[in-house]
């Protein structure tokens, strides 16, 4: 039997979630529930958008219909209002068919939920529609994306469509890159940026409309943002400039969102640009595949597709992380040696967040003649990204997810099955510019067992940083926070205990269930880092090592600066380079040494470049030599160039904040004790004592938890008596990551204070749970924060 015969075909992509709501059409003025009332309760106090013609019931188009030539020309007329739009002739999209209806709904509702297949035109067209509807007259249109790559690429695309440059009418704002100006009317942003904007200006007065795109991703920031925006809407409804909210997704449990937004209007944009055929592989019965090794199966499947699909159809593969991706890229390159002479060359192109931007751009470049590009990606290419030429998607069905166990403050990193919503998004990447195919490396039966939606991040992360931000906004009792999926009471309490122990908040004397920011907490909020890292910076000021703390904390915000085994280096070389930076004090000081070495290198390089410029070298060759020198330095020292760049941008940001806060830039020189003391004081909850008998470390705040120092740490062999770590990660064992040697006297008083607080806190928390249980039916009516 050939592999092809063993691939079981399914009909077009169908999925339980969408089927359920596909019965709704725009011609029905009601919500997807059975109600037939024409209006949702939130009557619009909104200024009337410039609707070209309001559809009467008889003209309203059911969304299930496809675009007819007449509707096309009608829509083109509307589109011509757009300045310079004619310069860009984009293909017809399903959303064009319902444009007038959407305009009408925008006019009548404060909140809209738009659900449409991937590629139907939501992310690119809805913001433009808002501009055409006149909504940008009273403020800009903010569009939030879960990932920076999506925000950047959508802004470029829409700028082209609107015949403007990025930074003109259309711009983007992601961390460290703000391409917006006073002219910008459509701002694509990451949800984290919008959240920070809301912290600075809680009513978001600069925006008339906020569009939450890819809401199904359920990122922590978008869930919190929805909660803030609801409050913001309430406040702005009282004034003259109400806030419009649009929630968009391809797959969403619409009823859940609808009831969250007070029975908001749901609009379904039906139809997709191009069909996608989905195939399921059943590795359990197909002998060509392994029953458990999805990485191996990926290579087999790429080979199958390469030998059977037409030339020129590029492939997009979804895997879970950089190591897997690089391994598959290597194996695919090797495969070229065994292909028939008539076959094209396989061109593997890795794509993951840690890659240098130039490397990431490879995925978007035109495939050379005689080659087939195989982009091997993590879920960064899952949503809102169009990679031209991709006609086949191979979905491993797996994703790496970090889950926080709040009771023990442990991060658990595990490979999970994707949700049905994710699988659908992945398949959708194949039909962006032509009909496509998706090969799923799991059986249809297994697919049916996948969760419908992604597990919301808010249910699986440490909540302390978010609560601190919300308290800055005036929230007093997180238990009253009105979120779509409220976290467990224990998780909320764990975050409150953490913040109280770190000195960032304190319970109010009048009501112990309410909390207020302390002065120290107020300072923590200035820094866009976790509360314990902010506390390190705070204490560094007292110790006199602010410069060093900023450098270390900045480096800690990125993934590992050391890139690990590099392409051409053997084990001995790798070991030699590691040793060069290693210190007795631990990984944080090692990190500092690395950053200081790169600072020296850049000083030298800048001097050399300036001198070369004075001697009249051209800018082009100066730039080339500059970049080459950086690349060589990073490669020689096994430094991840992209992470280094991110760390130095964060360093600049933190320095800027310190300047604004009038914090003196003290330095401790070679007296690393000061910086170790700051690290220990800031992160004292992560202090451990060595248990010689067990040959493991015990967490000082909870000695029942035992762990090992991760082998990547420079202290993994010396095993000092007391350490503090940055992160606790559970993989095949429980490991402390980034470890520093400490003096127990620095943390002992803090830990005993924490234990006392915990005892009180546990008692209060038990009482709270009891109260909640007793008053369960009444709770719904409780006033929300
Ligand atoms: O948001 P949704 O998935 O509904 O669609 P979209 O992102 O607005 O994309 C609509 C169409 O625009 C896609 O089918 C692509 O052909 C095109 N597009 C593109 O070429 N480049 C982008 N960066 C985004 C979209």
Describe this structure in words.
The longest helix is centred in the C-terminal third of the chain and has 31 residues, at 744-774. The protein has 785 residues and is an alpha/beta fold. The model is unreliable at 1-87 and 778-785 (pLDDT under 50). The radius of gyration is 28 Å and the shape is globular. It has an 8-stranded mixed sheet, with helices on both faces. It has a 7-stranded mixed sheet with strand order 1-10-17-14-11-13-12, sandwiched between helices. Strands 20-21-22-24-23 form a 5-stranded mixed β-barrel. Helix 6 packs across helix 7 (148-161), helix 17 (489-501) packs antiparallel against helix 26 (744-774) and helix 19 (531-543) packs antiparallel against helix 25 (672-682). It binds cytidine-5'-diphosphate.
Tally of strands: 24
Oligomer: single chain
Poorly predicted spans: 1-87, 778-785
Q: Mean pLDDT, as a whole number?
A: 83
Unique ligands: cytidine-5'-diphosphate
Major beta sheet summary: 8 strands, mixed
Shape assignment:
globular
From the alpha carbons, calculate the radius of gyration and give it in angstroms.
28 Å
Helix content: 40-55%
Termini separation comes to 62 Å
The strand order across the widest sheet is: 5-4-6-3-7-8-2-9
Tell me what portion of residues adopts beta-strand conformation: 15-25%
The helix/strand class is alpha/beta
Number of distinct helices: 27
